[in-house]
């Protein structure tokens, strides 16, 4: 049975569970994950080229997600041509309202073709743990040159709410209990590595050596 060291992870119901930011690392791939295929035909929110896809599931208000994402910003460009980077939203229960709103804002920026620019800025500037003022979401849009009216309409209408919830459900399907949580999948959509918790640059580099 998998063991998790975070005290805030606790199953409570079938649909939603209480998840927490985690620094625990999983050392094996659960059979229900390793035996299933993941659709690799979508190019949604993917950077780079390569045979492998590193899928990051994260919560913009989780401090460990922030640390992990900022590290991936510097690490994954080194694997251009080998590993692609895909981002998916996984808002946790304790950050649910704010993290979902922020995820929707990121998607609205994506509608103006600035998904990664907005996402990276948000992670850079958020204090984490629900401390980011909501007004800053529009400030970020202004900072990267988005059409503010379109952005406000998009966020005000919660245009990407279902998309965010779909990502959340996908994370749960993959066995995620907290953030950060990531998968490395091959061209056939088979999970070859699972990263459950906060990994260092050195740890990821050692694992990625097998896929170069």
What features would you describe in this structure?
- By secondary structure, the chain is of the alpha/beta class.
- The protein has one domain: 3-Layer(aba) Sandwich (Glutaredoxin).
- It has eight helices and seven strands.
- It has helices at residues 31-34, 63-75, 96-111, 115-125, 136-143, 148-156, 161-173, 201-208, and strands at residues 20-21, 46-47, 52-58, 83-89, 178-179, 181-185, 191-196.
- It has a five-stranded mixed beta sheet with strand order 2-4-3-6-7. A two-stranded parallel ribbon has the order 1-5.
- Helix 2 links the parallel strand 3 and strand 4 (83-89).
- Helix 3 (96-111) packs across helix 7 (161-173).
- The radius of gyration is 17 Å and the shape is globular.
- The protein starts with 19 loop residues before the first strand and ends with a helix.
Characteristics:
8 helices, alpha/beta, Glutaredoxin, 212 residues, five-stranded mixed sheet
């Amino acid at each position: 049975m998998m063991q998790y060291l975070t005290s805030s992870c606790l199953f409570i119901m079938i649909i939603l569970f209480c998840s927490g930011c985690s620094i625990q690392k999983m050392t094996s791939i659960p059979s229900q994950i390793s035996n299933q295929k993941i659709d690799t035909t979508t190019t949604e929110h993917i950077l780079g080229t390569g045979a492998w896809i590193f899928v990051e599931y994260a919560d913009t208000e989780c401090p460990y997600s922030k640390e992990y994402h900022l590290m991936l910003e510097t690490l994954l460009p080194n694997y251009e041509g080998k590993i692609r980077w895909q981002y998916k939203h996984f808002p946790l229960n304790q950050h649910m309202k704010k993290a979902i709103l922020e995820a929707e804002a990121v998607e609205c920026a994506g509608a103006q073709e600035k998904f990664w620019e907005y996402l990276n800025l948000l992670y850079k500037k958020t204090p984490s743990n629900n401390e980011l003022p909501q007004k800053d979401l529009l400030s970020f849009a202004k900072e990267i040159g988005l059409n503010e009216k379109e952005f406000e309409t998009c966020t005000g209408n919660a245009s990407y709410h279902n998309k965010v919830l779909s990502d959340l459900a996908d994370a749960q399907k993959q066995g995620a209990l907290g953030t950060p949580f990531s998968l490395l999948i091959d061209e056939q959509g088979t999970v070859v590595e699972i990263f459950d918790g906060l990994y260092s640059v050195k740890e990821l580099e050692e694992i990625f050596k097998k896929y170069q």
